UniProtKB/TrEMBL annotation:
The chain crosses the membrane at residues 14-35, 55-75, 96-115, 135-152, 164-184, 190-214, 235-256, 268-293, 313-334, 354-372, 384-408, 414-434. It is found in: Cell membrane. It comes from the Bacteria. Keywords: Antibiotic resistance, Cell membrane, Membrane, Transmembrane, Transmembrane helix, Transport. Its main location: membrane. It comes from Tissierella simiarum. Belongs to the multi antimicrobial extrusion (MATE) (TC 2.A.66.1) family. MepA subfamily. This is Multidrug export protein MepA. The keyword Cell membrane applies. It is a multi-pass membrane protein.
Length: 456
């Protein structure tokens, strides 16, 4: 690269080149996450769909462990490239490849050989156990493919190919839909067919995103650099908040699935599955904005361009707020129409999901702000603040909410747990803001006159 456009291009143009493709890619990822559920719900039954939702906690672990490495690598690489340290960047990338390879193979072996125990632990009862176990065992075979598709796709943003991850995601989604139709509708392979279709689709996506990384002309490629233990520790620590986010998602699924199972059996899990699919779709729009601004923030932080960071953050926060209000309204007005995409002939499940959607929709009013704050701190290498935010959203206050509200409000209390977690996380974000303003550290609402700070 002769000139790093992340450091010089106007912020609105960077949004068009980096953030918009990231949003589209994340939305398509959300649709892809629904594909298995849509096909299984329509052609097999709600129990198969519920089984996949329980198994999704294992998939969250796959993606979460990958995101620890991928997000930490993005942050470290962006700051290294922003500081014109190409050698450091190459070593960071080589360290990431080796670390991700070891982690993904380990998760593969655990999922394949202990799928039954994992399914039982995640909350599958006797009705759902077999399908849940088979889905986990099948998707486990594709763990390295899923992991490296994410890593190589994300790196494309730092080598000024932000459209690459979008192209890989489109290829993955289209393939998944076609393969799901073949394996579920035609071949009648059920959950095994769904998992196989998803795995092969990720392979096709990997083939798309890996191409520039295989060229020695690319500043970041698979040939250069060496493994460095310190680089690995730094990138793993920087990305740990994203790992917490996905582990928190897995834990949230685990806790809520068990709660809905206790209150309403398989129908309760099915209703939550539908709302969770739709909710994830909405949340991924907000994560798309966070992911899209990440290379802009990390690169400009490495180059000491704090004013550009401030403008980028203001725009992201406002965008997520507008999206949150709009989607909260849609969720309340058109929830039944959305739910019938997944299930059209099970009135108890539909009624339960419609009632839950009106409570669940409150999440969107604050989740966008919380997501931006977590991603912002990760991009700057401030892992501690990001971990606090991520764990608050998905671990601490989810557990507290379930213990309190389900006792007094029953199943409605379970639905209210996630909005409660977002409210409390928003309070945590404000506390971090207040603490950082006292220390004169740049933050989203900090004045533009702050002095620049060199990255370590």
């Amino acid at each position: 690269m002769n000139e790093n456009i992340l450091l010089k291009e106007k912020i609105p143009k960077l949004y068009l080149k980096f953030v918009i493709p990231a949003i589209i890619a994340m939305v398509l990822e959300g649709i892809q996450g629904m594909v298995d559920g849509i096909f299984l719900g329509n052609f097999v039954g709600v129990n198969a769909m519920a089984s996949v939702n329980i198994a999704n906690a294992y998939l969250q672990i796959i993606i979460g462990s990958s995101m620890v490495i991928c997000t930490g690598t993005m942050s470290s690489l962006g700051r290294a490239l922003g500081g014109s340290n190409a050698k450091k960047a190459k070593d960071i990338f080589r360290s990431a490849i080796i670390a991700l390879g070891v982690i993904s193979v380990t998760i593969l072996l655990i999922g394949f050989f202990f799928s039954n125990g994992i399914a039982r632990f995640l909350g599958a009862n006797d009705v759902l156990l077999s399908d849940t176990s088979r889905y986990i065992q099948t998707i486990a075979l594709f763990v390295p493919i899923i992991s490296f598709k994410i890593l190589f796709g994300f790196i494309g943003r730092l080598i000024e190919k932000p459209q690459l991850y979008l192209a890989g995601t489109v290829s993955c989604l289209v393939s998944n839909m076609v393969l799901n139709f073949i394996t579920i509708k035609i071949l009648r392979l059920g959950v095994v067919g769904a998992a196989t279709a998803t795995g092969i689709a990720y392979l096709i996506g990997l083939i798309v995103v890996i191409r520039p990384i295989l060229s020695k002309k690319t500043i970041i490629n698979v040939y250069d650099g060496k493994f460095c233990w310190n680089d690995f520790k730094n990138l793993a620590f920087n990305g740990s908040s994203e790992g917490v986010t996905y582990v928190a998602n897995a834990l949230t699924l685990f806790l809520l699935n068990r709660s809905f199972m206790n209150f309403a059996g398989e129908s309760g899990v099915a209703a939550f599955t539908i709302i969770n699919y739709i909710g994830n779709f909405v949340t991924l729009i907000m994560f798309g904005i966070s992911d899209g601004i990440s290379p802009i923030i990390s690169s400009n932080y490495g180059a000491d361009k704090m004013e550009r960071i401030r403008k980028t953050l203001y725009t992201a926060v406002i965008a997520n707020l507008v999206i949150g209000i709009g989607l909260f309204s849609v969720f309340n007005l058109f929830s039944e129409n959305l739910i019938r995409i997944f299930v059209n002939d099970n009135k108890p499940v539909i009624d339960m999901a419609v009632g839950g959607a009106k409570i669940y929709g409150l999440c969107f009013l604050l989740s966008g702000f919380n997501i931006i704050q977590s991603g912002y701190h990760t991009a700057l290498g401030n892992a501690v603040a990001s971990i606090i935010i991520a764990s608050s959203r998905g671990i601490v206050f989810v557990a507290i909410g379930l213990m309190i509200f389900s006792v007094f409000w029953g199943i409605n209390g379970v639905w209210f747990t996630l909005p409660f977690a977002e409210i409390m996380t928003f309070v945590c974000c404000l506390s971090i803001l207040f603490h950082q303003r006292k220390q004169e550290i740049s933050f989203v609402f900090a004045p533009s006159s702050l002095t620049n700070r060199k990255i370590k």
